[in-house]
Design goal:
The structure holds two protein chains of two kinds.
Chain A (H helix, E strand, L loop, with lengths): L3 E10 L17 E5 L2 E9 H4 L4 H4 L3 H21 L2 E3 L5 E2 L2 H10 L1 H11 L2 E10 L1 H11 L1 H12 L2 H35 L4 E4 L13 E11 L3 H15 L4 E9 L13
Antiparallel strand pairs in A: 1-3, 1-4, 1-5, 2-3, 6-8, 6-9, 7-8
Helix pairs in contact in A: 6-7, 6-8, 7-8, 8-9
Chain B lengths: L3 H21 L11 E2 L2 E2 L5 H14 L24
Antiparallel strand pairs in B: 1-2
Helix pairs in contact in B: 1-2
Classes of the chains: A alpha+beta, B mainly alpha.
Chain lengths: 268, 84
């Protein structure tokens, strides 16, 4: 028997069943470790693999990390489909069952608050990208300043036209940024109206071919289940309004509430 | 054939999204009860290393397992077909 540590995926209601839980990390069985009304979803994992110094090097290796990330997400998503869940990040490890119990007891109030906060809700992600070539072609439609400069340049004598064209180029770059952040803000505000909570994330860097655009919005929304449909309609109308003029939306979900389980400072 | 790289990219990006969510999000538990490596809570170990490495690693990954679709679970496809 190898030395084991307890890998905790998430905290759920103690009354949850785990009979139909998917396999956990490295195919390990997922158990329910209850204390009072709350419980941790746990698997025993090999301490020499997960608690040794080499784990740091392994987490930089996507071949190693990918299947484990999927297994972690599968367990948390399974729990989220069945009830309230507070996800923990990967590699939340405890020495033994007593450590898991201690964690649940120390944080009982906070964990119960978080379970209530996310109960009946799921997370969706929306990203918005500005496609500069396409947006430039439509810029005069959304920017009176650019429309005016384009008219002036077209009507100008050849000598004036050169200067006006130079001016137009620099104004365009600024207008691309302004229009991008304006559309991002309006989209975020429109979608937030349908959400119980919303969160902004750092903008992703995208370098992969085929995924063009400059990110201007990276947001997560916590939705009541019956808000998903109005949210989708709102997003559809944003897509119809903005994609023809140089924007691209990405929409993912439903996710477990990964972005909405930070501890609040009160009560701890 | 022409669509293959595009599908790969989407898979990679989805895996990147997934990994970032499960590594970087969720409730961070800190305290002495956590297993620690060299005095650092294991929960945070590797994250910085990972983020630095992910873009290049993603380029190499040929993982094509089914991934959570961009338009998963009862939510109709929102995009018009993308021009290529």
């Amino acid at each position: 028997m190898t030395d084991q540590v307890q890998y905790v995926y998430a905290v759920v209601d103690a009354r949850s069943g785990v009979i139909d839980a998917p396999a956990g990390i490295e195919g390990a069985a997922v158990g329910l470790h209850a204390d009072g009304e709350i419980a941790a979803l746990v698997s025993g994992v090999d301490a020499s693999v997960y608690a040794g110094p080499e784990v740091e090097a392994r987490t930089a290796d996507l071949e190693w990390l990918g299947p484990r990330a999927r297994a972690h997400d599968a367990v948390v998503t399974w729990a989220s489909d069945r009830g309230a869940v507070v996800p923990l990040p990967m590699f939340s490890l405890f020495r033994d069952a007593a450590g898991v119990t201690a964690m649940l007891r120390e944080r009982r109030q906070s964990l119960e608050r978080m379970l209530e906060r996310v109960r009946g809700r799921q997370e969706y992600g929306v990203r918005l990208f500005r496609i500069d070539d396409a947006l430039t072609a439509h810029l005069a439609e959304v920017s009176p300043r650019i429309a005016e400069l384009e008219r002036a340049a077209a009507a100008a004598s050849p000598g004036q036209r050169y200067l006006l064209t130079r001016k137009l180029e620099s104004e365009r770059a600024e207008e691309l940024r302004r229009v991008g952040s304006d559309v991002a803000q309006r989209s975020f505000d429109a979608l937030t109206k349908h959400a119980a909570e919303a969160a902004l994330d750092a903008l992703p860097r995208r370098t992969l071919e085929g995924m063009a655009g400059t990110a201007v919005l990276n947001a997560s929304f916590l939705l009541e289940r019956d808000a998903a449909e109005p949210f989708r309609r709102e997003l559809t109308s944003l897509v119809e309004e903005h994609e023809p003029t140089g924007f691209r939306f990405e929409f993912t979900g439903p996710w477990p509430p990964y972005h909405f389980v930070q501890e609040t400072t009160d009560g701890e | 054939m022409a669509n293959e790289p595009h599908i790969d990219d989407t898979d990679r990006l989805m895996l990147s999204d997934l990994v970032n969510r499960v590594l970087d999000r969720g409730l961070v538990i800190s305290g002495s009860i956590i297993v620690s490596v060299a005095g650092v809570d294991l929960i945070r170990v590797g994250l910085n290393v990972f983020i630095a490495a992910i873009e290049t690693e993603l380029q190499k990954s040929a993982d094509r397992e089914r991934e959570r679709s961009l338009f998963h679970a009862n939510l109709p496809v929102l995009h018009p077909p993308r021009g290529r």
